[in-house]
């Protein structure tokens, strides 16, 4: 807990009724294109159960089978990284957080009781770490909220769209960075509630279980957050409402001059993706098809966890020194 002793990693800070705290759909947990957190279908209060073979896989891992431990890592590493990226807002912090979360997942693996799917349980551990980490994003440090951010979008806005062969790629980079920055303008409780519902498309039963609250309280807080973001996007984002002034193509010059994007090394459009996952182009097409405010946040590529961080955890497992295997 910020400013105090760190809580048990498997138990996130509890959020009171009406104050739910903290993607890309993940097999066994989310229902991409289906019922979201605001829906009542399959949402009666209990989280979704373990997937086929998960209990047997975890039992083998706890029993010391290195191959099974590595299989657990592969199952959760990319979703946890995407979650960390949405919560921290930048790659470096997300990479470090993911490595720490993966180690915590493995050291607590014996506590999993299959009351929720393995990834849902891993999200719970990950969000506890992310909600309580002392490191703050630039928006958090500066006290930047959506109103301040809206004003900043007009600062340096070009009168004409950026032209050139790289214009489409740079506009996508601006959009991806802008949606990350918008999330950081929410407090952590609002941010994580929105991310679970509108980005990862978890049911409110799963999300509430992760956060230790009730589905009703979670939905109530989520609805307020969605309304705030919807108003912000309608008023400011030309991709959501053509009457709004801001356009990604008109932000490219200012973003480049201020070092927020690097045309030679784009942070998000050039990010590795999960094998078989969506790249930036596919995510952009999906957003255009959906035509809603939440699509701005969902339409990120299926980012893959950084190989060197995951390999460091896997190497520790293979070394025989990892406490799970003692």
Describe the 3D structure.
This protein has 326 residues and is an all-alpha fold. 55% of the residues lie in helices and 0% in strands. It has 14 helices and no strands. It has helices at 54-62, 66-88, 91-107, 118-132, 138-142, 146-154, 167-184, 188-199, 204-211, 215-236, 248-257, 280-290, 293-298, 307-319. Helix 1 (54-62) crosses helix 2. The chain is globular and about 65 Å long. The chain starts with 53 loop residues before the first helix and ends in a 7-residue tail after the last helix. Mean pLDDT is 79; it is low at 1-43.
Task: Give the topology.
Blueprint: H1 54-62, H2 66-88, H3 91-107, H4 118-132, H5 138-142, H6 146-154, H7 167-184, H8 188-199, H9 204-211, H10 215-236, H11 248-257, H12 280-290, H13 293-298, H14 307-319
Question: What key phrases describe this protein's structure?
Answer:
326 residues, mainly alpha, 14 helices, globular
SSE ordering: HHHHHHHHHHHHHH
Query: Please, how many helices?
Result: 14
The assembly state of the depicted protein chains is single chain
Instruction: Give the N-to-C terminal Cα separation.
Output: 29 Å
Q: What is the helix content?
A: 40-55%
Structural class: mainly alpha
In a nutshell, what does this entry contain?
Helix content is 55%, strand content 0%.
